[in-house]
Recover the amino acids of this structure.
């Protein structure tokens, strides 16, 4: 097993054992995006939908004007 | 047959209680947390240079140790990842929840009561977490912040006891598995 030398405030070191392979315990991940990321995603999707809607309305208005 | 290690995945939504349950489990993990004697040995070794009963020296020393050995680094993109204290020290870097657990583990192993403070920058989302430690030991009159993510560089202990600006916060006990 390898060790990692941790620096101590008194100038010494502490040899922390490091396993050759990490196991699957003691590390965890949330499958849910963090709150801020979720807000970015909602903002991006909302912006895209609003953009498409604006272009659609502008096209319809232009067509109506041309018909006159 | 040998299996490939994988990250344990949790669906925790936005619930702070769910996240705290995971963090508390990692803090007290038998393999890489407070129930591993290596964690206790390390904690005692870190504060070895302080005089007996000098609680403030112990906290300053813990803070100095963490800012020296754990750099601040972000999570995987878009995913909250959590790590037990010894894992964080082995890897040498973590984000705020990892820093919080290392500080809490070292403090609790030295006889302090610790809690996690989760803060909101603007009152909309929960953005940050750090460790609060009670002083004096046993009959707490005040709480000291150990937010080692505030270090500007490895080894910078100038932000000891500083708390970042926040719109609101919630505290969670860490003192038992």
């Amino acid at each position: 097993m390898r060790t990692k030398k941790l620096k101590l405030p008194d100038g010494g070191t502490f040899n922390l054992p490091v396993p050759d392979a990490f196991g699957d315990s003691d590390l965890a991940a949330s499958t849910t995006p963090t709150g801020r990321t979720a807000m970015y995603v909602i903002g991006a999707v909302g912006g895209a939908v609003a953009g498409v809607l604006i272009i659609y309305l502008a096209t319809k208005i232009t067509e109506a004007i041309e018909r006159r | 047959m040998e299996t490939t290690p994988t990250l344990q995945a949790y669906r925790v939504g936005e619930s702070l209680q769910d996240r705290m349950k995971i963090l508390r489990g990692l803090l007290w993990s038998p393999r890489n947390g407070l129930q591993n004697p290596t964690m206790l040995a390390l904690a005692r070794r870190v504060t070895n240079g302080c005089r007996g009963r000098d609680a403030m020296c112990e906290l300053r020393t813990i803070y100095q140790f963490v800012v020296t050995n754990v750099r601040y680094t972000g999570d995987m993109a878009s995913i909250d990842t959590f790590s037990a204290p010894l894992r964080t020290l082995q890897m040498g870097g973590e984000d705020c929840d990892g820093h919080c657990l290392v500080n809490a583990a070292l403090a609790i192993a030295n006889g302090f009561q610790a809690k996690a403070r989760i803060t909101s920058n603007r009152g909309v989302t929960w953005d940050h977490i750090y460790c609060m430690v009670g002083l004096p030991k046993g009959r707490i009159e005040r709480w000291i912040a150990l937010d080692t993510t505030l270090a500007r560089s490895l080894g910078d202990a100038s932000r000891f006891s500083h708390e970042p600006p926040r719109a609101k916060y919630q505290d969670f006990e860490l003192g038992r598995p």
In short: The longest strand of chain B covers residues 128-135.
